[in-house]
Amino acid sequence: MEVGMMRRLRRLRLNEHSRGLVRENRLDITDFIYPLFVVEGERIRKEIDSMPGVFWLSIDELLKEVRDLQSLGIYHILLFGIPKHKDSSGSEALSDKGIVARALKAIKRDIPDIFVSVDLCFCEYTSHGHCGIVDKSGSVDNDATLEISVEQASMLASCGADMIAPSGMMDGVVRALRYGLDKAGFVNLPIMSYSTKFASAYYGPFRDVAQSAPSFGDRKTYQQDPANRREAIMESLYDESEGADILMVKPALSFLDIVRDIRERTLLPLAVYNVSGEYAMLKCAQKAGIIDYENVMLENLISMKRAGADIIISYHTKEVAELLRANRF
Prior knowledge:
By secondary structure, the chain is α/β, with parallel strands linked by helices. The protein has helices spanning 2-9, 59-71, 99-110, 142-158, 173-183, 204-210, 229-242, 256-263, 276-288, 293-307, 317-325, and strands at 32-39, 45-48, 51-57, 76-82, 115-120, 163-166, 196-197, 247-250, 270-274, 311-314. Strands 1, 2, 3, 4, 5, 6, 7, 8, 9 and 10 form a 10-stranded mixed β-sheet that branches. Helix 2 packs across helix 3 and helix 4 crosses helix 5 (173-183). The chain starts with a helix and ends with a helix.
């Protein structure tokens, strides 16, 4: 009996090449979405100080970047736009001549195989940096923001978007978008909802990139309290009931318990956003020479898969593609 128990408790001792036989989770480049930031102008490829390896790209440079991604086997991008003109209502977000609309048309004209998800929010387009219409009291008007969100989604769909990704955390946004897109004839256009998005301190570098830091207050009234587990689960399940096609947890690393909780409660695909602060910290540690950067990066990413994520949105995507191509993981 004791010998049998010892046999059951003994773990498999496999060499490096044989461990793949029993590996439970793997990274595959087709699971990744790469965020890109498009700006006005020409011949602009400007590296962002707080996020080494991430760039502001004009449309001509964006097309070059997308072709490079395609050569690495990366076919999924998430597009953000940084306009020159900002106003209180984020009006450029609704224009088919705006920066994202023109970038979408250019990609679909020149590189149609790329699957383009578009961020649906107003923080990059508003002068106050909040995610929608702000009322006289200084609060975001949820219902007014839903109306312009539907308008923005329909415009982006008509320009060639392959998936809509609403990130503003407005109540009822998925239901409103699904109804509005169906009515406009885009019945098959999927919605990847930022269904559980926390009011996190990890977004700092992104706000530098997108020039979207709030000019007053914060976003805690419409983003999730990091302390609330049950509410976080409920938010994603609510978006599922409204018609979301893909759910998301953002950020990733500090909330892997929530990823697992949601994974156990839904059959929908589940994404995580490996956000700017998570990326920037690793880059700083790499520069300081205090970590084995590549292995720590891969360990972080596999933890997201292990927790239950099907899709990883990450600024590390190009690096992952190169490592996988070299059989480094």
